[in-house]
Predict the structure.
Amino acid sequence: MRVRRATLADLPPIAAIEKASFPDPWPADFLAAYFDDRHALVLVAEVPCVVAFLIARDEFSRQRERVLHIHDLAVTPAHRRRGAATALLAELTAIAQALGGRRIRIEVRVDNESARRFYEHHGFQVVRRLARYYDDGGAALRMERRIAAGSWLPV
Ligand SMILES: CC(C)(COP(=O)(O)OP(=O)(O)OC[C@H]1O[C@@H](n2cnc3c(N)ncnc32)[C@H](O)[C@@H]1OP(=O)(O)O)[C@@H](O)C(=O)NCCC(=O)NCCS
């Protein structure tokens, strides 16, 4: 499996994976906007066709600490449990490390058991519960993992 930075040419498979993964998928034009955002990073995993993607942004937390905020992560259903999301997260971790150390942050639906298990498996911890986080009134858990500069290990 190869992980690389995505280009706009990858938008059709990214939008298709998004549609197959969420009951309220983001439309293609919304996803396309990330390619024009200089603070955003879009990664894909391919085998050789694209089977997974991750979108993250370099942002500031309320405490003015820089965080790599995962906005979207999905794997095409037929390729789940084969390490695609792990490969994408490993690349994001390397980038966080190269940026001089960052927190990696994600909001996960409280009832999204597989995503919660995935992030727990990778050492993320729940730091906050966010009531009515989603448009439909659903709650989210904010999960974070800190990546030290020059270290592969969470601290
Ligand atoms: C969550 C998701 C991204 C995981 O992707 P994946 O490529 O299947 O994950 P990996 O194969 O890298 O899994 C690594 C580990 O995470 C945990 N994990 C992943 N999916 C899991 C599941 N459904 N149930 C329990 N644990 C799970 C396991 O510990 C797994 O290791 P194992 O397979 O050796 O047991 C994928 O299920 C998905 O696309 N879901 C729909 C979209 C979504 O919810 N995205 C997250 C939004 S925050």
About this structure: The helical segments are 11-21, 28-32, 84-98, 113-121. The longest strand covers residues 50-60. Residues 84-98 form the longest helix (15 residues).
